[in-house]
Amino acid sequence: MKTSAYVLLFLFWIGTFYAANIMAFAEFISLWYMPAGVSIAGFLIFGKRAFIPIFLAVFFVSFRFAEQFEQGFDPAHLASATLFALAHTVPYGLGGLLARHWLSHFAQHGLPQRIIGLLVIYALAALLAALSGLMVWEFTTETNSGILEEGWFAWWLGDLVGVMVIAPLMCLILPRFSRKRLPWLDEFYAHDRRLRADLKPFLLKLIVAVSAVIGILILDSKITHPGVAYFVFFVSIPQLWIVLTERTSYATASLVTITVFMAFGVGVFDVTDQSITYQFALYITAAISYFAVSIPALMQRNNQLAELSMLDLLTDLPTKWLFKSLVTQVVKSSRPNQNHCIALYNLDNFKKINDEYGQTTGDEVLRQSSQIIKNELRDSELLCRCEQDTFVVFLPNLDIEEATKRANELRHKLPVLHIDDLILPIRGSFGVAQVQFGESIDKTVERATRALQQAKLEGRNKVVAIS
Ligand SMILES: Nc1nc2c(ncn2[C@@H]2O[C@H](COP(=O)(O)OP(=O)(O)OP(=O)(O)O)[C@@H](O)[C@H]2O)c(=O)[nH]1
């Protein structure tokens, strides 16, 4: 944690505290308690070192409040400010550290499971903070007995919204001030690397979301029916649209924007009697956003896996799996009188190259020789790496004789390679088979393999066709 991070965390805490006060629709009452998000994210990103700046910030604010209330300094204020600071810092410290442990040590669980855990931790930390905060309040003042029972739910929900909305924003900003890399955080923002930073479509979607918020607030202020406020849950739809199609950083910004408009709006449009509904809507919208973030991440992971299974990493050629699915498609869409063949080839005595010159030279032979054959192919032909030093070429629209001739042409194209100081003449044995009507590609490959074995038995560096 850099020194600037201590100052930043302290200032963020104080800043969000006063910002929340601006958005309060009654004294100490607003839809969200933003500093809670700063606290939990501070511990999440910086670990236990976040304790000092957060404790000091809460202490500072509590002390100033006590002074303002009672007009003048009283040493008891120091004690009550300390208690308030502990009542806030300890629950969020525990929550943040637990969340950090959960996200960094249980990376083997999928993102959705980790998000469930995160939501539970956030909810428990906010509940603990609400209960301890109110207990300290009851304890330090004489006139406030009973506020624990009355106030715990509203406090909890307000804190929880603050945590859910502000923590992701802090997780974007704070890691820049950390000396450590936080790889477990990257997965949440994996989407950002794939998508271009295009502000225009995002802003359009954000305008839709904000218009929905304002429209519903106006409706709620005009129509006295209490059910109107429930329309605010619709806001989760444009927010979900943003999460699924835009960068995670934009989705984070939109969640904050929606919340700010709602927090100001309940006061401006005087619909504070429905504030619990609005808080719930914000919580649900945030929770949906958290889950939805895992969908683009999963999609990206699937794409990577699909690419891995379709392209051979060494030669960059399609794999047998892709070969089979492509050839099956071509054969299926062919007329009955169309002939197609495959030529399977294996490099001769390749093991010797590996043994004598090393695996790296062997790899280079596989890479270069396959690239040369690939460059010789016609547009309709397809080369894939089957396994080890065995490759397969799809030869469409050729009967077995034409295909045998073509395989011989390709065999002659196998190069004499110059790798470092070595001169390596590359040879190969080919087995050719025609795709029979109604036969699976696996069966054709099996027959071509038999022909290839025959070519090896007959002395290598030749083509054998099987009918
Ligand atoms: N360098 C390298 N070697 C590989 C790779 N995959 C498999 N091999 C090696 O390729 C060799 C395959 O040898 P074979 O085709 O069975 O035997 P061969 O020496 O080519 O002899 P014939 O096929 O009978 O002519 C084995 O030694 C494998 O270890 C790879 O990705 N890179």
Automatic annotation (TrEMBL):
The keyword Lipid metabolism does not apply. It catalyses: 2 GTP = 3',3'-c-di-GMP + 2 diphosphate. Pfam families: GGDEF, MASE1. It is a multi-pass membrane protein. The keyword Membrane applies. PANTHER family: DIGUANYLATE CYCLASE DGCM-RELATED, REGULATORY COMPONENTS OF SENSORY TRANSDUCTION SYSTEM. This is diguanylate cyclase. It comes from Pseudidiomarina marina.
